[in-house]
Each structure stands twice: as structure tokens, then as C-alpha cells.
Amino acid sequence: MMAPTENENETKESIIIFDTNIFLKGLDFNVIKSEIYTVPEVLDEIKVERYLKKNRTIIDRIHCAIESQKLILKSANEEYVRKVVERSKITNDFIVLSDVDIKLIALALEFKQTSNKKIVLYTNDYSMENLCLELNISFSPLYKEGIIKKKLFEIFCPFCKIQKNLNEQICEICGSKLKRRTKENSKNTVNNR
Fold it and tell me: In this structure, are 164 and 85 located in the same domain?
């Protein structure tokens, strides 16, 4: 996937939402004609020490985009955050999604349900993409292949081989960290995404 530019899918009548991993690709915001949004917490993820030293230009570019109102920071309504959390528990993506991931998907869902514009969430996170498929939210990865089919996961202990409750992180029998796997591959594979 190429960098997002104005084309038939993203025009002035569209809203695109960027995940943290998209910002770290060093995009030039000036070539994007769509409205660009993200949640304020993305800035906290970018301002960690390793990015401050290595990617100062990216951080400066983001701040310029915010000041020029090319990039808009917006928090999703709590009603949409709750909906996303509920659905992420159905797919069992909840265990691997961060609060920021959930808020980004909630923002996309809110725009999808309250705007007549085309909404696209740009992310390279497979779990976010999976949940977007569940919620019928358009998404696009950047510079890589995304997922094409929704997957349902189950939580299990890799040693006891017992399926567990989503709210657990450690097996109460053996003390191992729980993992997740796709339901159709539950007999043989482990998926750590």
C-alpha cells in the first residue's frame, strides 16, 4: 500500500484516522487532501524516549500539522468506546489491544455512524484491522499487506491446553502467561499478535 494521497477513495469528502504506527512512517501531511484525525493519546505514544531522539523530524511534522489544523485531535464519545470494547471481547482482540487502539477504532466508529463522509482508519496493527472488519469500518495498512478475513480468537494456556476466560492473563493451574489463537487453528497454532 502506498502513502495515502488524494484518489477516488480519499477525497475532500473523506475522513482518515491515523494510528501511531502510521505517523512513524514519516508522512508528508501536505499531500493528503482528506481531513486527518487521531486521538490525543497517540501523541503520548509517539513522545516516548526512543522516538524523541530518533524521529525528531516526524514529531515536528506532527506538531506543525496540528498547529495548521491539517491534523485534528479528537476523542471519541464514551458510548463508542464501550461499543468497541464489547465487540473486541467477541473477537477476543481485547486482550491485545491498547487503550489507544480502542479509542482510535471508537473514533472511526463514531464518524461512521454520525458523518456522511467516507471513513478510513490507517493502521498496520492486525488486531485493529480484525476488529474493524467485525465493526464494518474501512481500514488500510500502509506499506504492507493487511488482513483480508475476520478471525475469531480464543484464549488458552499453551501448557495446560485449556481454553480460558478472556479476563484472565495467567493460568491459575500452572502460572503460565495465556496466549491466543485463531479458533479454526485451535488444535495446532498459537497467534501472539
Answer: no
